[in-house]
Amino acid sequence: MLDRISDKFTDVIRSISGQARISEKNIEDAVEEIKIALLEADVNLRVVRRFVNRTIQEAKGDAVLKAVSPSQQFIKIINDRMVQLLGDTRQELQLKGPDTTSVILLYGLQGSGKTTTSVKLALELKNQGRRPMLAAADLVRPAAIQQLMILGEQHGIPVVADEKAKDPSKVAKSALQRAKKEQFDVLIVDTAGRMQADLDLMKELQGIKKVVDPVEALLVADAMTGQAAVDIAKTFHDQIGLTGVILTKFDSDTRGGAALSIKSITDQPIKYIGTGEKITDIEPFYPERIASRILGMGDVVSLVEKAQEAFDEQEAIELQKKMMSASFTLADYLDQFKKMKKMGSVESMLGMIPGLKAQEAAEAVDEGEMKREEAILLSMTLKERDNHLIIGPSRRKRIAKGSGTSVYDVNKLLKKFEKMRLMMKKMTKNKKYQQQLMRQFGG
Ligand SMILES: Nc1nc2c(ncn2[C@@H]2O[C@H](COP(=O)(O)OP(=O)(O)O)[C@@H](O)[C@H]2O)c(=O)[nH]1
Ligand SMILES: [Mg+2]
Q1: Ligand 1 pocket check for 348: Cβ under 6 Å
Q2: CATH entry 1.20.1250.20 includes domain 300-440
Q3: How many CB atoms lie within 10 A of CB 426?
Q4: In this predicted model, what pLDDT tens digit does every residue of 233-269 receive, in sequence order?
């Protein structure tokens, strides 16, 4: 799913996030890489141009170049632009209350996945407590009615069909009457496709739309066809009117061009994605989540926001001074635990770091050990935390008892702390490293 585009973007994000400070040249280079990635993903050229121009414009402002962490601000801009391309916020189906019947019409070309999707959607709505019914209004393909009836039966969704019918509008109309009479609150109408969006098809669909007055007219489009899917969406919207799009075969779409262009070109939101051949393989479409997937970062934006809340700039500078003068105490160490907590669990935090896969993150920290360390620190007196050198054998025993750990654990923590201080001292003797650290903290 979106593997290729995600690989490209992850590389770009990785290279940016490794930089303590960024120049206009860095921004231009990164945006150039992004442009290539988008074009390779088969994103509409106009959409790419707009994306690139806006990103550069925003990123070159003072808000980024003079920010505390410019690289993260820049990544946030890229992310926000990406979310915008994908349609900003989740767009739910606009169904009426359960006391009347809401009609959902599905359109699309042959093989795009209409019949499969109509059953997927019915099941999804059933699981939300709705009472859906299906209507077989594809009278073109001989086996279409059978296909829907079998799928419906397999999943306990009633299907209205008439194998002798000639007029799909009539089928749809009588299905609606039955749904109303039998108090089904959603009627999903599966329609016929064609190889192309020709005049015949448009007339047929307009006819159906008129008699059932749908609350949702959704185009079912094959994500793998890239720009073709976008063109089809535009044609259908111009000719019959859409309320949204369902992108199928998202599981096999490595490029993402359709997903990234549809909203900008047609102004129609993607409401669901089909993610496989099984009937349960359907997901609501969340622009933020897809953007994160493409950028290869769990959720870097909320990380930036949370980090800004937890660490203010002044605190960061003070902490850094302490590290450099080697007056970093156990109390400071404990303070870091509190900040980490404010930002959520360490694991979830690491999951948000760009380029770090969840698996690697989980291996990088042992959350159980962190809890143990915190308990030990909390069992110390203020004096002990300010000067770890006074913690002799009897104090160690008391701390171990108080924190429900062992003397071995206390010793381990103290050793680790000594090592940390030693490392800080060494690092701070290194001028180059010192400068880098200063920059990172905006000092
Ligand atoms: N991998 C994958 N296959 C799908 C998806 N949706 C539909 N298909 C397959 O696409 C083919 C055509 O589907 P169908 O519903 O008959 O298309 P229709 O002609 O538009 O009604 C079938 O083999 C489906 O299993 C999807 O989201 N992912
Ligand atoms: Mg079909």
Answers
A1: no
A2: no
A3: 10
A4: 999 999 999 999 999 999 998 889 999 999 999 999 9
